[in-house]
């Protein structure tokens, strides 16, 4: 029997907990001694569920869907698919392909629901289908003149391609300048705080991939055909059915954390990693501080990090003088690598949850919904109108009826605002942020006014979105430097400074664990998940 390897995992989000479970499952406790260090008291990172007065908020909205079958099976093994109708399924007479022998959502919490995605765009006081469909509502909203302009603009983009050296050109090549200016330019600037021409096209290649006017129109035509399509045949941005944990995304990660502990993983919360020590090209230990500020050093053979790269490099640099031969106070991180890491930008995020009596907007679709009167069926409403600061609006009732304490008589909505930590919006008081959210919903005619609001909660999220500008262009050099530590693996959204979906973050962790188990030294497989050259969200068995 070989001696067990010790592994320290930094972060208890999707990537960190996936790595922990992959190491420990199927008797892995005989091979690995695993410790997870989570800096907060919650699990799931941005995929956590926030609880407030009996209602639950999903931070950012998380569809559980992947074209990687490994991930779909992974989720289903944690929370099995529903085998009986949920509360809203019963009330609305809604049918799904239920899982034979699956749990009943009305009798147990540990269950994954099947959901239908409905999303719309709010633009110029009109609600448009998302993605854009061939509907009378679209032509009515645009008008004849604008529709013709958009059409000719798109035709021009088909024959005159711009160099894709920024996000603006990326969008224009796929949608034409007119549609770009209406639906992408202002929204992108709202999201990132930068004009699209300042942002790398990498973001579009990763997030939008095959989505274009052709793909949208093809999807609209295919939907009219009688043949039922699987999600594998549809662009991810057009997916209409997904899975969802009964009590929100954080429920899945809380369950994974419980499973890990039961299998032998040591999980420490309120454990902020402040230093990472190295010697001879290997990481040797991490130093973390608990809620009382007490510092503890933890040595290990292997290290998996999902902490923001900026923080990772600063933690490596904080261990100055830790190795005797370097001399007291001498930096262990090259100056150019510190410059790149500290120049990596992030976009932060605020959600304001409002519990309201009802919505002013009516359900004009043919999709039945809960509520008295019935609410709109949207999971998300994208606010692509530049006249509003809010970026998206979630209707939590439609994600899962179990997120809302009184789902029949109240509507629980979340207004998502993109900002930067420390800016004027970030620094608003809870009351000020709530009043702004109420004013915007009222001006949009979604609610009647403050008299409709029963409760509220404001949630701040740091480093929610790794951004693709400033020193991002030098990321390959930083990756090469970090990979020089043979026993350090960077995984997840912030761990790789890549705007990954949840499934991609998990896949990076699975690849890292596979390298540790097999002794593979190249980390190319870990970094290549969800890159436009090698991943493309193609179906993997």
TrEMBL record:
Cellular component annotations (GO), alphabetically ordered: cytosol
Molecular function GO labels: flavin adenine dinucleotide binding; oxidoreductase activity; UDP-galactopyranose mutase activity
Domain Amine oxidase: 15-455
Region (Disordered): 86-108
InterPro entries found in the cross-reference section: Amino_oxidase (IPR002937), FAD/NAD-bd_sf (IPR036188)
Record field: compositional bias (Basic and acidic residues): 87-108
TM spans (from-to): none
Any Pfam family: Amino_oxidase
NCBIfam families in the record: PRK07208.1-2, PRK07208.1-5
Full protein name: Amine oxidase domain-containing protein
Record organism: Bifidobacterium aemilianum
């Amino acid at each position: 029997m070989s001696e067990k390897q010790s592994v320290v995992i930094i972060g208890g989000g999707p990537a960190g907990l996936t790595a922990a479970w992959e190491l420990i499952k199927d008797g892995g406790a005989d091979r690995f001694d695993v410790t997870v260090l989570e800096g907060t008291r919650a699990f799931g990172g941005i995929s956590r569920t926030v609880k407030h007065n009996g209602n639950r908020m999903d931070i950012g909205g998380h569809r559980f869907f992947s074209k990687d079958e490994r991930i779909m099976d992974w989720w289903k093994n944690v929370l099995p698919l529903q085998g009986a109708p949920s509360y809203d399924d019963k009330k609305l007479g809604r049918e799904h392909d239920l899982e034979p022998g699956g749990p009943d959502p009305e009798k147990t919490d540990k269950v994954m629901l099947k959901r239908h995605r409905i999303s719309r765009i709010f633009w110029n006081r009109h609600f448009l289908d998302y993605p854009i469909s061939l509907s009378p509502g679209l032509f009515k909203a645009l008008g004849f003149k604008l529709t013709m302009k958009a059409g000719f603009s798109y035709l021009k983009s088909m024959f005159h391609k711009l160099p894709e050296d920024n996000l603006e050109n990326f969008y224009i090549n796929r949608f034409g300048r007119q549609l770009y200016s209406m639906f992408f330019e202002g929204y992108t600037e709202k999201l990132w705080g930068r004009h699209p021409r300042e942002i790398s096209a990498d973001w579009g290649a990763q997030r939008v991939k095959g989505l274009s006017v052709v793909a949208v129109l093809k999807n609209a035509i295919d939907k009219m055909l009688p043949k039922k399509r699987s999600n594998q045949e549809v662009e991810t941005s057009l997916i209409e059915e997904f899975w969802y944990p009964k009590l929100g995304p954080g429920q899945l990660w809380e369950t994974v954390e419980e499973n890990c502990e039961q299998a032998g993983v040591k999980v420490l919360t309120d454990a902020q990693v402040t230093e990472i020590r190295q010697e001879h090209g290997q990481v040797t230990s991490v130093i973390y501080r608990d809620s009382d500020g007490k510092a503890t050093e933890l040595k290990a053979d292997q290290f998996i990090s999902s902490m923001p790269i900026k923080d990772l490099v600063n933690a490596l640099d904080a261990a100055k003088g830790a190795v005797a031969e370097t001399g007291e106070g001498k930096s262990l991180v090259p100056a150019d690598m510190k410059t790149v890491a500290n120049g990596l930008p992030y976009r932060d995020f605020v959600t304001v949850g409002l519990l309201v009596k009802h919505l002013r907007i009516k359900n004009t679709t043919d999709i039945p919904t809960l509520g008295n009167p019935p609410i709109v069926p949207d999971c998300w409403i994208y606010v692509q109108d530049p006249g509003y600061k809010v970026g998206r609006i979630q209707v939590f009732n439609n994600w899962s009826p179990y997120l809302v304490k009184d789902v029949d008589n109240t509507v629980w909505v979340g207004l998502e605002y993109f900002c930067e930590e420390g800016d004027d919006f970030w620094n608003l008081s809870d009351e000020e942020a709530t009043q702004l959210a109420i004013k915007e919903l009222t001006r949009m005619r979604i609610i009647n006014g403050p008299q409709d609001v029963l409760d509220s909660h404001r949630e701040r999220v740091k480093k929610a979105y790794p951004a693709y500008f400033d020193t991002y262009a030098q990321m390959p050099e930083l990756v090469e430097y970090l990979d020089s530590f043979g026993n350090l693996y960077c995984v997840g959204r912030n761990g790789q400074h890549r705007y990954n979906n949840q499934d991609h973050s998990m896949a990076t962790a699975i690849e890292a664990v596979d390298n540790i188990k097999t002794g593979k030294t190249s980390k190319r497989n870990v970094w290549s998940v969800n890159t436009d050259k090698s991943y493309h969200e193609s179906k993997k068995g």
